[in-house]
Amino acid sequence: MRNHPIIINPSLLSADFLDLEKSVRDAASSGARMLHADVMDGVYVPNISFGFDIIEKIVSVSSVPVDVHMMTVAPWKYLDELKNAGAYSVTIHSDVGDVCTRRDALARIRSLGMRAAVALKPAHPAGDVADVIDLCDMILVMTVEPGFGGQKFMEDMIPKIRDVKRIAAQAGVDVSVQVDGGINADNIGLCAAAGADNFVVGTAFFSAADKKERYGKLRAAAEKGASREARD
Ligand code: DX5
Ligand code: ZN
Description:
- By secondary structure, the protein is an alpha/beta fold.
- It has one domain (7-231): Aldolase class I (TIM Barrel).
- The chain has eight helices and eight strands, in the order E-H-E-H-E-H-E-H-E-E-H-E-H-E-H-H.
- An eight-stranded parallel beta sheet has the order 1-8-7-6-5-4-3-2.
- The radius of gyration is 16 Å and the shape is globular.
- Residues 11, 13-14, 36, 38, 69, 144, 146-151, 180-183, 200-204 line the site of D-xylitol-5-phosphate.
């Protein structure tokens, strides 16, 4: 039984940074109902992207909810800034801080009125979210090593999507499952069939000349995969 709508979530890491407003408007007018913003601190991952001022600008030019993926060592330091910037959801990684710190951060994200999520790097099993999943609206299964766009999708992460669904069911919570990294029209259906509903797409979305057409193709492939899940 699927309780979450299919969301194609363009990753602005692949946007045109010299004309970010156009990229945001293109994504919104293509039909996207969420936009993904990757915050990288150069310590948690070997890359630096952008921060709250840019997120605030992104929020200011469209009404599409902005989903912030925090690839930073201490994401709890910045929750007020994210709220003030207008973030819709905040994802922290499963291996930052200790379990108490992560639980406090997730509870605070929710108390600020944002949706809370935890991300799993490829090496981290689904069981790593068991002690926080009751405070999560979404779990992100990374399908590449975090840090850069344009990498190859790791198909061996697909069983982890099913594992997350199982752990959520055991905990009696209904979380959305997001996948991020190398998602394209060829693999999005596999992820949907395994139970993912939120698909971050960077390169495969922004490289398209016709983004509306690409959005439609991604969405149709995801819906087709999800109908396979419903039959399983
Ligand atoms: C990678 C980021 C992704 C990235 C995805 O660390 O979390 O959101 O932008 O880009 P693609 O779809 O190109 O792999
Ligand atoms: Zn991301």
